[in-house]
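We modelled the chain as a single entity of 348 amino acids. Its sequence is:
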Amino acid sequence: MNTIKIGNYAIGNNHKPFVIAEMSGNHNQSLQRALDLVDAAAAAGAHALKLQTYTADTITMEGAYTIQDKNSLWDGKELYDLYKQAYTPWEWHKPIFDRAKEKGMEAFSSPFDETAVDFLESLNVPAYKIASFENTHHPLLKKVAATGKPVIVSTGVSTMQDIEESVAVLKKAGCKDIILLKCTSTYPATPENTNLLTIPDMMNKYQCMIGLSDHTMGTGVSVAAVALGARVIEKHFTLRRADGGVDSAFSLEPEELKVLVTESERAFLALGKVQYGIQAAEEKSTFFKRSIYVSKDIKKGETFSADNLKIIRPANGLAPKYWDEVIGKKSLIDLKQGLPLKLNYISE
């Protein structure tokens, strides 16, 4: 799988994880809060800031559905009203994107219909993200693919056939750089329903770069995903969960986002390569392995035994693997207690 470039960042197996801070509706309808979120994400080390580009009218219609799910954060709300509350005004996109760029982050969005793609193209975004609930929207996929830019696709609520068809549609429409994100579309998700072992399987099946769109609490699941091959991590982000907001309950706070960036990078660096033997960094530590020492004064001709020898640190004497060969042999010279045992002290 080739390296994929999103703006100034390279994404690939040999590159550190690309961490996306998803603002979603956590701006709580305040542009100033949105800009504060950008600043906090940049300070935490996130590589990209992502929005969602839709209006209530481009994603649903009034009266279409009222959410009835006691396990949902949005139980009892009409879908139209939820999206009206959660959406990011389109006129905010440019100041938010400009602020992100000033802070050294890439900035892009998830379009939810074709008009959103046209709008985002006018802002020259470096990539597109397709949300799980839109990944079977083939006209949208074709529109995004036609831009020639990298496309990141979440795979929540999707069958294998859905994913295969989405990848095929994108490729046929001209998309060369596809990143699939393992995703569980519950809010929040649990570690138990995240199934990270799917990540290496996805790499083999779809021959694409793989990442994780993580809706679990905390950072542990994302760090584990990096160890399994994920090279993109997307996490919802807020200033403080206590502030409320449509996605606040499962979003990271700034300190947690900073931990995610640091620990996902450490997980990547720790992967290294298949390595056996003593590394250069360990060579000094070999001194603190054990060896055979004289534990009592021994006279010339005296027999070596467990009573006058001992296996201790450091490793100045014969290695412990020679213990059985040494026991029962005789000493060629007088030996003082505390002396590391050497081969030339032992009779044949």
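As a brief sanity check on the tokenised model: The CA atoms of residues 251 and 267 lie 21 Å apart. The domain at 280-345 is CATH 3.90.1210.10 (Type Iii Antifreeze Protein Isoform Hplc 12).
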